């Protein structure tokens, strides 16, 4: 019997957020919690989709932390694109937002998100 540790799949995390302060806060939190998973950053939904579709950059398995309010392509629009793409539709998505709007939360859950994390702006 081998004493080597069992192999596991490393889970990549795609953070899609246009606010550099929020991105730095997530990176600090991951460092503090010793989360060593690869963290890939996209500045908007268009960039996020491009990264997801390039399997050399964001490798499976992965999870997505998605902001709602972004330029070019917002989070809900990206989420709809993910759910309508047969290659991405099973993606695990957590919304990470400052939005207080109930309609944002409802719209996100209608797109089968794994969770909705409301962060409080300082």
Describe this structure in words.
The chain is α/β, with parallel strands linked by helices and 122 residues long. The chain has a single domain, classed as Response regulator (Rossmann fold), CATH 3.40.50.2300. It contains 4 helices and 5 strands, in the order βαβαβαβαβ. The chain has helices at residues 20-32, 45-53, 75-83, 102-110; strands at 12-16, 39-42, 62-66, 92-97, 115-118. The chain has a 5-stranded parallel sheet. Residues 1-8 have low confidence and may be disordered.
Write the layout of secondary structure elements.
Blueprint: E1 12-16, H1 20-32, E2 39-42, H2 45-53, E3 62-66, H3 75-83, E4 92-97, H4 102-110, E5 115-118
Parallel strand pairs: 1-2, 1-3, 3-4, 4-5
Brief write-up:
By secondary structure, the protein is α/β, with parallel strands linked by helices. It contains four helices and five strands, in the order βαβαβαβαβ.
Observed structural traits:
122 residues; globular; disordered N terminus; alpha/beta; five-stranded parallel beta sheet; 4 helices; Rossmann fold
Would you list the SSEs in sequence order as H and E? EHEHEHEHE
Unreliably modeled segments: 1-8
Can you say what the CATH homologous superfamily is?
Response regulator
Corresponding CATH architecture: 3-Layer(aba) Sandwich
Computed Rg: 15 Å
């Amino acid at each position: 019997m081998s004493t080597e540790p069992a192999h596991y799949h490393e889970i990549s995390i795609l953070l899609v957020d246009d606010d550099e302060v929020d991105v730095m806060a997530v990176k600090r939190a991951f460092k503090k919690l010793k989360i060593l998973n690869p963290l890939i950053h996209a500045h908007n939904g268009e960039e996020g989709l491009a990264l997801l579709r390039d399997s050399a950059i964001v490798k499976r398995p992965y999870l997505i932390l998605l902001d709602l309010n972004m330029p070019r392509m917002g989070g809900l629009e990206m989420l709809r694109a993910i759910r309508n793409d047969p290659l991405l539709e099973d993606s695990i998505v957590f919304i990470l937002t400052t939005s207080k709007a109930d309609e944002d939360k409802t719209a996100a859950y209608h797109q089968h998100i794994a969770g909705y994390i409301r962060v409080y702006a300082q």
